[in-house]
Amino acid sequence: MTTTIHIRKAPGVWSVRSGGAVLGESSNALELSEGDLAPVIYFPREDIAMALLDRTDKTTHCPHKGDAVYFSIVNMSTTTENAVWSYEDPKADVAAIKGHLAFVVSESVKVEQL
Length: 114
Prior knowledge:
Elements: E1 5-9, E2 14-18, E3 21-26, E4 30-34, E5 40-44, E6 53-62, E7 66-74, E8 79-87, E9 100-103, E10 109-113
Antiparallel strand pairs: 1-4, 2-3, 2-10, 4-5, 5-9, 6-7, 7-8, 8-9
């Protein structure tokens, strides 16, 4: 079975929040669609408050995208473990997501189009 991945500029402005704090807003986000999975918004690092993210030891491997590294979100009230991932050296077919971050959407992490 072949997985098809499409990457396009996400329309409009996107925001990511955690624990009431705005981690970032971007008009340059990317939308990655992979097979039947829900689309994922990838934010450029320069649009995210990196001071609120701590890199963890967690890594995962995707045969289509490569190796992902993870970050926890640390704000004044909580730490959300491994809530952010990034492909530091993605495969050539998805090179557009290099330098971008994606977020695990949950009760404490919200990704929204403004």
